[in-house]
Batch of 2 targets.
Target 1
Amino acid sequence: MSSTHPSLLFDDLGSRSVQADFSGGHLSSDGGVLLLRQINRGLGLTRSLAQCFHDRRDPVFVDHTVQQLLDQRLYALALGYEDLNDHERLRLDRLLAVACDKADPLGLDRVRPEHRGVALAAASTLNRLELSNNKQSRAHKIPHDPAKIQACLLDMGARCLPKHAREVVVDLDAMGHRIHGMQEGRHFNAYYDDYCYLPLYAFVGEVPLWAQLRACDTSAAHGVVPALEAIVAALRKRCPKARIIVRGDSGFGVEQIMAWCEGQAEVYYCLGMGKNPVLLEKLGPALADARARYCLSGGASTRVFAAFEYRTQKSWSRARRVIGKAEVMSGGDNPRFVVTNLPEQGFDDEQELERFAPAPLYEQLYCARGEMENVLKQQVLDLHGDRMSTHHMASNQLRLWLSTFAYLLLERVRTLGCEGTELARATAGTLRLKLLKVAAQIKVSVRRVYVQWSSAYPLQKLFALCHQRLGALAEPTG
């Protein structure tokens, strides 16, 4: 038994003993990280993101460029390593060093002799990257420009959309992220019954466009109009012929958002509304009809839809079209409301004549926003987007952005690399497990880096197809 690699003994296999240790050499359990490198280079993501940071370090003593630090952090998040402490061992992974474009993945070119043999950055270095906007010291010299990072995310997301799209649906949502300390901006939220942040997210389909960290002492609609101004401008630049539909739950059904959309060309909204006595009174005939149908249906839930004009006494500047859903279930009445400026007769296309009638507008258009909640679950459960453990709000905002960029990498691998395969609709966690968690052996010589994946890996053909597709992406210039 080696003193440096103590053996772990398992139950015997017949007449054979089963013995294991950690002396296997330079292996990696994340062989699929090369696919992340491929999509990252094709998108130019970290190259663009690095331009949002100002590097004030002396180049003579720099081992890791800002882009390499971002590569290391984003790849680790995509691979499931959410904590900076993970990098104390992860930095020994030579395959991750290759993915981060370290010229010498053996780390023999490090400036200080005591660091040689380890190519990647330590957790303390990555931590200083996150804290540089909050601390002024000789060690914290890589501040970032928050406005540029948000613009970078918006630009990267918009570039994922087809240029000739005729319609773009922007989903808005506010998701509470619980915090477990005395973080800056903490506030108690009665809905979540805890202290948390309330970030604003905007997605088109599964593509993220906006991730803005906010304290939860404001409403869901706080700051949405400035966000929409930037989002719509970016979408107009990418998809000039598209009409834009803003979709969200009742937290976004407020005057300032609706009035802003109404003041824009080809910008529409479909937003939830909270119940009140006037709305329930207007929906009364439809509810009576639904109750009668429920009695005749033998217990099956029934729905009846109604459309009517409605205006609040003070908060709304004009009357608006409201769709009411009168639903009766075994548990009782379930009335819901949506406000929209989408025309009931649709647009010029004959196929859309019935699309915005009350029933299809609610059931097919509005209810489809629930898919965004599934995307946000991936952001939290698979990409650890709620890991807000630094004290400063600016640092936690940066963590939220990094998690969102990591999700974008996985989303592009899924969309561009796995289209038409069994992983075409996989969650980020499933994609990681089946495509990225591949055992690999790494051999580094003067002329090449030789990666040998496990021969027992079950998805070899799919991996090769994904590699072929991602390899065809041209790296952007400029």
Target 2
Amino acid sequence: MLPLKIQKASEDYLEAMLMMKEKYGYIRSVDVAGQLGVTKPSVSYATKRLRENGYITMDPVGLITLTDSGREIAERIYERHKLLTALLIHLGVSPETAREDACKIEHDLSAETFDALRKSVEKIL
């Protein structure tokens, strides 16, 4: 399957939503805003775009659900984030810096490069 093309900001929102679902069992806009350090209006704009593109749904009280395609993207980005963070920490980078740098790297790696990194990391970690 070809990787889905999506903007970095949208990937960040979907990843944050997946993290919220895992942490709390539900996803609310206010929690996403806190996780990403953005305003509620920014989250409202982003959720509107994500709904229009079929990545999320929202119920009448504002709870967010990832669609299958939204979850697929979120899981891909989150997997990259976790692996890159672990690798950077293994290399001696502080956990906070490793998380920040992983966030910057995770969006721009090709699938080929990430697969090669994953195979290498599995051997050393």
